[in-house]
Amino acid sequence: MPSRSRFASPSSTRSAEALAAATVTAAVGGSIGWATGLFWLAASGLITATALAGAFAIYLIVSERRRHESAEDELQAQTSFLESLVDSIAVVSSPLEAKEIIERMCEEAKQLFDAREARFLSPAENAAGESRLTENGMIVPLAVRGNQVGALSLIRPGGFHRWDLMRASVLADFASRAAENARLIVEAQEREGERARLAEQLITAEQDERRRLSLYLHDGPVQSMAGIALMNDAALAAIRDGRYEDAAKVIESSLERERRTIQELRDLSFAIEPVVLRDQGFGAAVRALGDQIEQSHRITVATETDAGERLSEKAQVALYQIIRESLNQAVRRQPQQIGITVVELDGGGFAAEIDDDGVGERRRASIEEIDERVRILNARLSVESRDEGGTAVRVLMPPYVATADE
Q: What is the CA radius of gyration of the chain?
């Protein structure tokens, strides 16, 4: 395959110069003969000069035609190569995996440049990181946004030229971009799959939460209100029968149960969306939760949660629910002290810990309930039970979850 223009050879150039010199010499001889009166010399010189000039003109025409034919052949060769290069680029750019694209690039380069060997080099094997000619070969780096991802090595007897290096760079550039696009597509598909999985988890968690809320209302406040209604009916019947003391006792019990039910509903409203969390912040909400535990169960609760103020709003709500659930489970184990801490990690994530000294063992079901809430945050849960008593519940949140508002 021609790869550069073919110009006139030195021998043909020397022949043209000799023919031009002979023509000039004959013309000069004829002029001298005319000037000296030697008409035979003048006629001979002019005839010779005319013949040589005609021969020189014919030579120039033939040489120019050959030069044009050579240029046409060169253009045809260049066109054929470019067509082959475009075909190779189309093959390499087809929707394949990144590894397959690199393998296809090596095959196409081997055919395109008539190479004996074509292989892919890792970045470590091409420490120079630049295009270069080698003995009987060439190396062309593959780079994406300035970062080298490998190199194409070609070997051919007789070696390559610099214009081959430029052409190979075009193919390598397209191959590296195609491989990077294929990699990005795979990552996008994985992220889309992860997003779908998290969305499904969120829907499941919301359904479970509504189910727990429905069961709680049915088994708690609704049952209490039903009992209060029956007690009110009994008190009314006692009043009608004139048993006023009995009616007063029933009404007192009914009022006490009604107050407890109101408190339960208030606690439920606070747990669903605590006003203090919205109005005063995360630390104040957790301290209020601890104060409620101290007053209701006579348990000392220590909090160190100021770092939680740097969490996003959604992360604060989710972590608050995890802490609330962990506290409710810890209270059942009758501890003397409970510690709540939230700290920011060096890598940008956050860690929350609820530590108690209760002697009872946590039930597996209770741990699974907390784990469901933790998975919504895409965080990690660990539960450590100490032999001497006590349990530590730890939640680790990655940075992108802790700071994401969307």
A: 46
pTM of the predicted structure, to 2 decimals: 0.45
- Structural domain including 389 reads 274-406
How far apart CA 273 and CA 213 sit, in angstroms, is 13
In terms of Cβ atoms closer than 10 Å to its own Cβ (0-12, 13-18, 19+), residue 330 is buried
**Residues linked to residue 350 through DSSP beta bridges, in sequence order:** 344, 397
Give the residue from 167, 194, 221 where a domain finishes.
194
Cα 89 off chain centre by: 25
Contact status, residue 365 vs residue 313, Cβ threshold 8 Å: no
What would the pLDDT profile of 225-283 be if each residue is shown by its tens digit?
999 899 999 989 989 988 888 889 989 998 998 988 888 887 777 666 667 777 888 88
* Nearest to 138, CA basis, from 149, 122, 148, 126: 126
**Bridge partner list, 377:** none
Structural domains in the chain (count): 3
Our CA angle for 347, 352, 356, nearest 5°, is: 145
Tokens for 376? 């919504």
